[in-house]
Amino acid sequence: MNSEDFYIALTSKNIQKNHLELKDYITIDKKIADKFLKRSKLHKDDVILSYTGEYRRALKLYEDSYQLGPNVCRITPNKNCSSNSAVLSVFLNSSVGQSILNKEKTLSAQPTVAMSRIRKIPFPKFSDNFQKIIENMINKQYEWNKESSELYEEVKREFDDSITYNNYYQQQINYNIKSLEESLKKAKRLDAEYYQAKYDNLYNALGKVKTKKLKEIAIKKKSIEPGTEFYKNNGIPFVRVSNLFEDKITETNIFLDRKEIKDIEQLFPKKDTILFSKDGSIGIAYKLEKDLEIVTSSAILHLNVKNKCEVLPDYLALVLNSEIVKLQAQRDSSGAIIQHWKPSEIDEVIIPILDISIQKKIANKANKSFELKRNAKQILAIAQRAIEIAIDENEDEAIKCIKGSCYNEYI
Predict the structure, then answer these.
(1) pLDDT exceeding 90 applies to what percent of the chain?
(2) CA 153 to chain centre
(3) Which fold has domain 149-363?
(4) Does domain 3-125 have CATH number 3.90.220?
(5) What local confidence, expressed as pLDDT, does residue 77 receive?
(6) DSSP codes of every residue in 282-340
(7) Has residue 110 got a pLDDT over 50?
(8) Residue 290 · residue 264 · CB < 8 Å
(9) What pLDDT shows up at residue 201?
(10) Can you tell me whether residue 216 is helix, strand or coil?
């Protein structure tokens, strides 16, 4: 079944990052949708809003090829609407819009804002000039996010092509034969998941290129788990796996008191350190661009490359986020109710070592992708702040805010 046969039905998890995230989605057969679900067809310039769950996000659409999925609703500005779709989406994501939505949500296990309440939300009326400024900024945000995603996909293709990996791991074999002696003596594992053919295919591919074990490439350092009794409302940010992504660290609401943790400065990660998750959502790697005064949980390892002339930190982070390492993590942690990757197993992870010139090329493209995504996030934040100032004060002050940023070219 290819993309020509179905529509993607957008759900709340597809829009939580203020841009379309289509790594995990549901589909609807096009023939069925076109015949029976015409009213749920989404169009360019529609605004979709997630109204169920702990977090509510709005997003302006730039394409026509989607359907409404569960827990999201469509807002379509009509000709008499005082705001365009870009402004509506920014307003709903702003502190003012979020405050209104949170006030209207039901107090239940699954907080929900009823459709009848959404229809009554008061939308601010702005001048055409101010709306155009916000629209230009949101359009640029979309362009940067799209370019970032396309560039990162290109990076992954170049990496896979460099080790001729795709042809191996995509082979589908429904059985695999292993002897009991091999299972017990070598791997000491008897679960069937561990012996799936896809893992053999992976190691066959890795056997054709230069590789090293992770313990030969990087020094591993553990962090701490101080316990909830040390959690504060301000102080040194305490970063957990839920805050860790391959392109960023999100803000945390848990902090530690500098005075209560002995030698806390020794726990601060330095520039080029790779933060790598081993519990929960295992196998997430993020390389630091600068020294940070943060403390990570014990579920996050700190990796520092031994020889940067052989392996670039940016390249290692890319490999750790690749399917090559994800499959190794999947194999090691299979059978566990809660995912946990033993440090001893992480030491044995196989890393392909490409020529340093190829590493630089791939790493530069990956960094450019991350930079574009950061720019998209920043311009959205400025647009949201401008909306808030326009509501609290006036449009002139809001425009001053935009002029004072690095995005004044959109005025």
Answers:
(1) 50
(2) 14
(3) Adenine-n6-DNA-methyltransferase TaqI; Chain A, domain 2 (3.90.220)
(4) yes
(5) 80
(6) TT-EEE-SS----EE-TTEEEEEES-TTTS-HHHHHHHHTSHHHHHHHHHHHTT-SS-B
(7) yes
(8) no
(9) 76
(10) helix
